[in-house]
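We were asked to recover a plausible sequence for a given structure. The inputs and outputs are reproduced exactly as logged, with field labels preserved.

PROBLEM: sequence recovery
POSITIONS: 203
GIVEN STRUCTURE:
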């Protein structure tokens, strides 16, 4: 039902966004109209993102069998996708290792990393530093998405992966989000025999 609702929202919303973007390209507008148009575009884009995340959560794309995927290549693809959102708001450092492979559906692996990068950007705090690095151990490849943001309140370390859960710090700070990004990331990772976990870091 939720996936159907998200689909029905997304179709007319696409026309709304198209019309707003045509207005944006149309030429000069009074200052107040430009502000209203920018706010409308931002709001419509956020609704579209929520609808897309809801559809993904209800039925992530699982077509095709898992195949060997080079993790650094998938991480680079995710960084390139997220870069438009991140580059003006945070400094991103990458420390990737070539020739490390996992058995996965590449598109889903990229989606996990995009969701983690988007989450890191939202909560990166004033320092706005994000790093993507890789580690190998116990026969597994670990991709770490690191930030130096506000952290997670004690007792919420696992709840942040529950659907629609928002930690109280994020609610009071006004940070936008659907509460589905981390849920979907963990769901996809576990479907591949992996996991997504929160780990606090010093500093």
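RECOVERED SEQUENCE:
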């Amino acid at each position: 039902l939720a996936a159907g609702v998200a689909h029905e929202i997304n179709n007319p919303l696409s026309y709304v966004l198209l019309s707003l973007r045509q207005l944006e390209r149309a030429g000069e507008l009074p200052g107040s109209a430009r502000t209203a148009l920018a706010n409308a575009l931002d709001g419509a884009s956020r609704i579209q993102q929520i609808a897309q995340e809801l559809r993904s959560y209800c039925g992530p794309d699982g077509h095709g069998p898992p195949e060997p995927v080079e993790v650094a290549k998938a991480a680079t693809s995710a960084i390139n996708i997220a870069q438009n959102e991140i580059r003006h708001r945070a400094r991103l450092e990458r420390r990737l290792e070539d020739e490390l492979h996992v058995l996965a559906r590449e598109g889903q692996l990229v989606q996990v990393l995009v969701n983690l990068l988007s989450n890191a950007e939202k909560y990166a705090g004033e320092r706005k530093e994000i790093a993507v690095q890789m580690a190998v151990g116990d026969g597994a490849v670990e991709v770490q998405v690191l930030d130096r943001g506000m952290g997670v309140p004690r007792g919420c370390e696992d709840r942040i992966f529950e659907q629609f859960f928002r930690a109280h710090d994020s609610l009071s700070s006004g940070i936008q989000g659907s509460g589905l990004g981390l849920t979907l990331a963990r769901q996809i990772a576990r479907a591949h025999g992996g996991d997504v976990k929160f780990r606090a870091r010093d500093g």
